[in-house]
Amino acid sequence: MALPKRIIKETERLMADPAPGISATPHDDNLRYFDVIIAGPNQSPFEGGVFKLELFLPEDYPMAPPKVRFMTKIYHPNIDKLGRICLDILKDKWSPALQIRTVLLSVQALLSSPNPDDPLANDVAQHWKENENAAIQTAQEWTRKYATA
Amino acid sequence: MPQQPGAHKNSKETQEPPSAARKEDETQPLYDPRSLQYLEPTQTSLQCSVCCEYFTEPVSAPCGHTFCHGCIMQALEVSHGCPLCRTPIDPSSLYEVIALSRICDELLVYCPHKTLGCNHTCQRIQIGKHLKDDCVYIGTLCRVEECRKKLLKKDLSEHMESCPYKRVDCLMCNTKVMKSELSDHHKTCPAESVTCPHCETTRTRIRHLEHLKECPKQIIQCSLSDFGCPWKGPRFDLNAIHIPQCPYESIRGFLELSKTKMDALEQENQQLRAIFLDLRPQVQQLRDQVGQLSESFQLITQQDTPNGFGDAHGFMDMSTSGGGYAGAYDPQSHGMLSRQESYDNGVDNGDNEALRAAIRNNSIGADSIVSNLNNNNGVSVGAVDTHELLISENERIRSEIETLTAGLASLELKQNMAIMTESMRMQEEVQSLRAVCHGLRMQMHYLLLEQQNSRGHHGPPGSPVVGGGNNGSGTNSGGKGVSNGGGPPAGAPGGRPLSSIGMPRPRFTDGLGRQDTKL
Ligand SMILES: [Zn+2]
Ligand SMILES: [Zn+2]
Ligand SMILES: [Zn+2]
Ligand SMILES: [Zn+2]
Ligand SMILES: [Zn+2]
Ligand SMILES: [Zn+2]
Ligand SMILES: [Zn+2]
């Protein structure tokens, strides 16, 4: 199956004009599989961290959303131990008008504003709601511990 | 109005890779519209947000957003909202944006076969026509059925010049021949003219083949060369010169007859050979079996039979030499001999004849043992039993013969005794008869003398008695002449010793007996 023109175009643009704090590099042997690095946004508990993700474009992309997962351990109420992300545009709110770039920007935004009301990691979300400062401190510790390049 | 022509939807759904689009089949799209390369710098306002390309047949939704018709239809299958603002869209509410469509169609594009070398550029709407009619970088297949080589349209005419599968006319015979085979065809073309190498006349090949059967100058062999005639010469000379003087011609009948016989023999030979080949494995099989038997038999004799047993020895010999097949297979020559020895040792020569017969029986028995063993390799006990049975049988026959011989001797003795006794009795009887005869004769004498005396002559009464007694021997000798001469009985050997007693017997038995009855 030839790679759709849209994926080629998106890849070219990601490489030529990357979004700030985001880099996505396709594998040589599988152009639908990307190694992604997102820098922890400023003024967030993840500031200073470098987070690795993997992104895969399924066969029916762009009709179906890409699959994205955190590879680096992160203490975040919307990301579970396995790195799965609770983000609506990666599920039911996906639109074929969205692109890899927009998806990664959304993930970056999720780091800036954790949403403990729509949790994936229940214990983290609980911690966040009960004692946000302590949770943020843990997140900072994890960032130092696991996400420092 | 909002619905687009079905053909466009088709072309989108069957997104074929470029190689497939290059097929000559007119029903297949010649190119993927979303793969076109545009000359213009990218203007995102003219691009569909789903496929990220310039719009192809753009349609707008009530929300105001515009997409390619194909893209929005595909997106609506997954979710029912506008991909950009998520407002629900009813497919029937989509409407064509004609002005936008025209703008996009007029954008300049490269020919999709730019990478193959086509430098053609044109308005997007023209590209289909270019590909269909003008582009020579489009892929195609050689039209010759056997070839079907993939090549670019621009190379087709060049290829057709040299396509090895293309048919060309043979100018000689007017048949169509593959170009690659044309030179071969000329070697066999029936219309090609051929010069006879023998007589140097020229004709078409098809007639040349006929001619070769009768070319008068072709060198041929004598028709009887099979039988050894060494003659070779032009065909013309065969009948004209050679045949009349061919030495083989005169015995042609004989030669042909022997040839048929030879052939028949050869055939038979082959049949026999086939049979032989057929039999060979069977013989081999039998040989193997016998070999096995000998081994197992050797084992049996070693285990079960004490040494020195004559018969077992015979079989031992057989089995030891029975590694070879001939020895084991011919008990008459081998096992027999040793058995004969063992018997000769124990039996006196007189009975040899009978014994040989018995042994002959025995050797047949040995054969049956072998076949028995053939049947049940493992059953060793049975073989030994049969063995001992044979020995005792021989023993029995031997003693029977001895008994018979003894009986015969005693019978002869008895017969001799009986004959002797009988002849003694006869002698005694003859003796007594003789005495009686003598008495009667004396009486007759007396009566005769008394008759003479009563006629006139009266002799002294005592003298005749004395004279009679003396005359006994005299009448005896005279009696010889009177006797009718019945020869002495030949079969009475016992009688002879009695003749020494006195008078010959015949006179009394025959002559005088008759006289007695007269009296
Ligand atoms: Zn589109
Ligand atoms: Zn919209
Ligand atoms: Zn072209
Ligand atoms: Zn060809
Ligand atoms: Zn020909
Ligand atoms: Zn000729
Ligand atoms: Zn001849």
TrEMBL record, chain A:
Keywords: ATP-binding, Nucleotide-binding, Transferase, Ubl conjugation pathway. One of its GO terms (molecular function) is ATP binding. The keyword Nucleotide-binding applies. Gene3D superfamilies: Ubiquitin Conjugating Enzyme. It is an enzyme of class 2 (transferase). Residues 2-148 form the UBC core domain. InterPro entries: UBC (IPR000608), UBQ-conjugating_AS (IPR023313), UBQ-conjugating_enzyme/RWD (IPR016135). This is E2 ubiquitin-conjugating enzyme. Belongs to the ubiquitin-conjugating enzyme family. The active site is at residue 86. The keyword ATP-binding applies.
TrEMBL record, chain B:
Residues 130-182, 185-229 form the TRAF-type domain. Residues 10-26 have a biased composition (Basic and acidic residues). Residues 1-29, 453-519 are annotated as: Disordered. InterPro entries: Znf_RING, Znf_RING/FYVE/PHD, Znf_RING_CS, Znf_TRAF. Keywords: Metal-binding, Zinc, Zinc-finger. Residues 465-494 have a biased composition (Gly residues). Residues 48-86 form the RING-type domain. The keyword Oxidoreductase does not apply. It comes from the Eukaryota. A zinc finger (TRAF-type) spans 130-182, 185-229. SMART domains: RING. GO terms for molecular function: zinc ion binding. PANTHER family: TNF RECEPTOR ASSOCIATED FACTOR, TNF RECEPTOR-ASSOCIATED FACTOR 4. This is RING-type domain-containing protein. It comes from Entomortierella parvispora.
